[in-house]
Amino acid sequence: MTEKQKYYALQALVCEELPHFAVDRAIRAGYGQQYASASTRLAHVKQGKVASLPDLLALVEYSLPEFRIPAHLRPEGTAAPLFEK
Which branch of life, at top level (predicted)? Predict the structure, then answer.
């Protein structure tokens, strides 16, 4: 499964559960500082306009800590959360 396929599969699982404050929570936790406009980038990832698996994982992990992301939808070689909370 490609990274893009994993992104869309995970997006399908969380699309109705991902809260409106997911972007804000990820940014406040320090994620996205590598982007010039982190809130815009992460909002586009949340909406499905930008298919970035690491960004979607961050949104899910920061805003839905109780949601267990299936191992087969994580990037190759990672079975645990990517980001420290």
Answer: Bacteria
For residue 66, what pLDDT is reported? 93
Residues 6+ apart with CB under 8 A from 79: 71
Instruction: For residues 4 and 28, give the distance between their C-alpha atoms in angstroms, rounded to a whole number.
Output: 26
- pTM score of the predicted model: 0.85
Do 38 and 28 form a contact (C-beta atoms < 8 A)? no
* Alpha-carbon gap, residue 24 to 11, rounded angstroms: 18
Task: Name the one residue in this structure whose structure tokens are 């982190």.
Answer: 38
Tokens for 12? 């399908």
pLDDT (0 to 100) of residue 79 = 61
Q: Which two tokens stand for residue 9?
A: 């599969």
Exposed/middle/buried for 72, CB within 10 Å: 0-12, 13-18, 19+?
A: exposed
